[in-house]
Specification:
Length: 241
C-alpha cells in the first residue's frame, strides 16, 4: 500500500495543476495526490480528470460545489486519506510557492526523525521567503510572533501551510470541532495537535511567491486569523471520540 498522500486544494489553478502533479509524480517515492477542487470555473477539475487517464492509481479528485474555504477542503482531504489508511498526509499549495522537493524532507522528519507532524518553516534557520514585498514578509513574520504571544506554541512559523501529518494526529484531532476555514485553520490545527501531546518539527524551506494565477489572501482571511487566535486561547481541546 502507498503511504503518502499529498492534498492539494484548488480554485482556478489551471496554469499550475498539471505541472505540480507531474513534479510530485517524478520523485522516486510513490506519492499519491488528492486534488480537492471547489468548483473552479477555469476548468482545473477537467485537467485533473484528463491526467487521471495517465495516473489512474495515484491521482484522485474530490469535487465540491462552490468556494467553501481552505480549511474545509483540507478536512475533506484528511477524512478521505484517513479512510484509505495513508500513514503520512500532506498539505501543499498548487502554485509552487511550496517546493515539491521538500515533500521528501517533511516525510523524513516524521518517518525517520520521530515527529508527529512536520512543518515547512520559513522562519527557522535555513528557511526564507523569495519574491515577497517587505511589508508582506513582515506581516507574516509578526503574525507568528503575535500567535506565540497568545498561544505559547513555540513554533516559529505558526501560519505555515506546507505540512506533513502522521495519520495518528489526524485521527486524534476532533475534525468536527475545527472552527476556522481560512488561514486561522492552519494555526488551529497546529495548536490542537500540540495540546493533544503531539510533537512538531520545523523543517526549513524556501517559500516562493506564485508565478501564475491569483493569490487567495484577503483582508477577511487576515481578520479571521487575528481574532481567531484570541478565541483559540480559551478553547477546550479534546481528542476525537
Amino acid at each position: 500500500m502507498p503511504d503518502s498522500l499529498v492534498i492539494i486544494p484548488t480554485y482556478n489553478e489551471k496554469e499550475n495543476i498539471e505541472r505540480i502533479t507531474r513534479k510530485v509524480f517524478s520523485f522516486e517515492h510513490p506519492f499519491h495526490i488528492l486534488v480537492v477542487d471547489d468548483g473552479s470555473p477555469d476548468g482545473t477539475a477537467d485537467i485533473v480528470k484528463g491526467l487521471q487517464q495517465e495516473f489512474p492509481e495515484r491521482l484522485h479528485i474530490v469535487e465540491r460545489e462552490g468556494k467553501l474555504g481552505l480549511g474545509t477542503a483540507y478536512i475533506a482531504g484528511f477524512r478521505w486519506g484517513i479512510e484509505r489508511k495513508y500513514e503520512y498526509i500532506f498539505e501543499m499549495d498548487a502554485d509552487f510557492s511550496h517546493n515539491p522537493e521538500d515533500l521528501i524532507r517533511l516525510r523524513h522528519a516524521c518517518a525517520e526523525e520521530g515527529a508527529d507532524f512536520a512543518i515547512g518553516s520559513r522562519y527557522v534557520k535555513g528557511g526564507k521567503v523569495d519574491n515577497w514585498p517587505l511589508n508582506r514578509v513582515m506581516m507574516s513574520f509578526f503574525a507568528s510572533v503575535y500567535v506565540n504571544s497568545i498561544l505559547w506554541m513555540g513554533i516559529r512559523d505558526c501560519t505555515a501551510g506546507f505540512k506533513c501529518y502522521t495519520r495518528k494526529v489526524l485521527e486524534t484531532i476532533d475534525l468536527d470541532s475545527i472552527t476556522f476555514i481560512g488561514y486561522a485553520f492552519q494555526i488551529e490545527m497546529k495548536y490542537k495537535a500540540q495540546r493533544l501531546g503531539f510533537k512538531a518539527k520545523e523543517v526549513p524551506i524556501t517559500f516562493i511567491d506564485r508565478q501564475y494565477g491569483e493569490s487567495k489572501m484577503s483582508m477577511g482571511i487576515f481578520k479571521e486569523a487575528f481574532w481567531g487566535v484570541m478565541k483559540m486561547r480559551f478553547m477546550k481541546v479534546k481528542p476525537a471520540k
